[in-house]
Amino acid sequence: MGEEVGRDVRDDGSGRDDRSGRDDVVVRLEGVRLTYDEGSTWALDDVTLEVQAGERICVLGANGSGKSTLASVICGLLAPDEGTVELMGEMAFDGHSADADAYRHARHHIGLVFQNPDDQIVTTVVADDVAFGPENLGVEPAQIARRVDRELARVAMGDYADADPSRLSGGQQQRIAIAGALAMEPDMLVLDEPGALLDVRGRRGIMHVMDGLSETGTTIVHVTHFMDEALAATRVIVLDHGRIVADGTPDQVLRSPSRLAALGLEAPFVVRLADALDGTGTGGDETSGAGDEAVPRDRDGAYRESGVRLDRVSFSYADGGTRGRALSDVSADIPAGQLVAICGQTGSGKSTLARLVCALGTPDDGRVLVDGIDVTDRGRRMELRGHVGYVMQRPERQLFADTVSADVAYGPTNLGLSDEEVRRRVDEVLDFLGLTELAGRSPFDLSGGQRRLVALAGVLAMGPDVLVLDEPTAGLDPRGRRHLRDIVHALHASGTTILMVTHSMDDVARLADRMLVLDAGRVVADGSPAEVFSHGDELQRIGLGVPDALAWARHLEASAHRGGLELGLGEPITLGGLVAAIDRAGCHDLARRTLVEGGLAWR
Amino acid sequence: MAIGIGFGRYCPGDSPIHRLDPRCKAVCVLALMVTTFAITTAGQLAIAVAGALGLVMATGVPLRRTLDSVRPVLLFILVIGLLDLFFVSTGETLLAAGPVRVTTGGVWTAVLYTCRFAVLVLYGATLLLTTTPTALTDAFESLLSPLARLGLHVHEISMVLSLALRFVPTLADECSAIMDAQAARGSSLANGGPTQRLRAFVAVLMPMFAGALRHASGLSRALDARCYEGGSGRTHYHVLRLGRRDAWFSVATLAYVAVLLALGMVGAGV
Question: Which residues of A5-15 are buried (b: 16+ CB within 10 A; e: fewer)?
């Protein structure tokens, strides 16, 4: 029936005329409250907010702080329970009832891009997907074609118009989603954690697109967990338990590490560095003392050959030969107790390597030995399962049982252990991860971060001495990331051999003994993180970055060099290392001056 | 990692077949496929094989890519063909080894059925390889639009079909990731007693179900955000327009069908 209400609002302009006579406020929320559970908790609580045309707003907050709910309210996808919502100059919710037409009009002017690219791409051809929104708005075909070309070019995906989105990387998919939103020519673009599941290169690409949009005057509301992304905004809003607890420029909001930490956030690197230089703290950079707390384990650990051995391993997917080799001639000896970070950009073979170590695939060539057991040895497969634990990407997706404890018990039960032993292990692991109180809850009722811990518990309960983690911190908020780092640190301290696939160079710097860099299925670097990061240019070439500390050290050296001073700071890869290097070089004052002059957005 | 569902995945190109109106292409290919069942003589078979290979060539998709995309189906057909070889026992005996007897009738049946189905599959593959799912959906919607007057939600049905096509690879990837994760936790669908297998099955099925629900809610948010409000008032990026090329293709198809049927009648008359 929707025909009587002007389909192409852009022409009838009913949504805009009201506004032009007034101010440039695109969104006005007043006293907005919203609950998902009949008022026992408020996802948004007394939120009052005005978004001006042309602003670039960044919304920060821990998981569960109400960020995504706020994004949905701003996009006109969700009406609140109390308060008023004015979108694009029209009163959409007046405190009592929602005006469906006003909401519809507003949605025609607001684009939304959210976290998971899988769910927002609706067709199997890139260009068709970008055209989907304009088609819904009833735009003329010739006009649609122009918009598709223009927006794909804007997000640098013009060469992929005919491609199948499901074959592209997450970063490319998100850029397509952005193009799809922009093709509707919105006045405001809302991005709800668009980079949460992407690698460094993917996130950088999205930030680049946002920079361009912001310059051309598009209003942007960007929800994120990454503080460095907030630095590019004109205004930062912090949410906590559904309330706005900070609202100002990045400089005003992001200057206080202790306050941010209390809100479950992490201050930007330079703020933490300034703090550390002033001697007021480490800025929460290093992992906490969780390392002393060993995982209780019952095995005596007296294997003659332990650890992981990769001997000239090659692997290709049997997929019509289109994908080529996933791994070529990969060799590495990983002694027991080592924590190895496996790095490389999307498609470099990291996850394939992880799967082979877990006996989820058989190498075409070469051998993979885990604690001396060949992964191709079917007779010892179950024994191997007790030695090596595999935590897949976003492992919370593997949960299935009615209760947390039943899910955690699944692995040990499969190993054929006695009921008593299974129960003991489940209790131990839940205690170690601080999940004891959740034992009887359904895993489906928990928060994302808790679910991830439950999935990890299910693997740890099998008592592995080799643990393979595929992007353990992806998609978590700063508090969750930090908690998980502490756990990995503790497992490492207790002697578990760990292979950790990761995109986060700072995690590598903070945690790893060794770093294995893959590019197109080959090992291109293998050594301590300090050694590997000293070849920063090489890493840049294959799409990886270096840790903030090292990048800032180079930044300081360069600015000293401009002043005719040569500093040798070495290769500090953590905040602590950088502070020590600055102390050694005796350039405290220069460092502090550079910090102040550079501002927050030094990169 | 991806399960073998490469069947008929769209292969971008710019051949005359790619550029046909999807409605014309779908109807013609359907006619080509249906008439393979009328093949009974060697002459007909030769024409059909030539027709199918000719069409595959005309798509510009490398022959290997086409064959790769239908390989599992072709293998299946070949196995069925081999069974024919042993179970059809009309005609002269060519070979006898104990209870197994291969006859001329068996050989002909095997060849005929195998080639017939192979031709059918190849025709189907050319349609899928040269037509995007969106174009197929548009064609489906347009061809069935007369039914909309009878109250059938043609647009909505074709939208659902298109979304289903879109999500098959996503769900398949997710399924294999979850099977990997549970296998690493020692679960096995292939070994163990019935209770263990049932548990292993549930451990994959439950997360898949939860995942599907998660996708559904994400998708509904995406459809809302992109102002999808059903079929009315929607325009189409690709305008369907029948052209001279479509006329030629239809004529060629008609000629082929006529020759095939005529040969059949001649064959039956002799």
Answer: ebbebbeeeeb
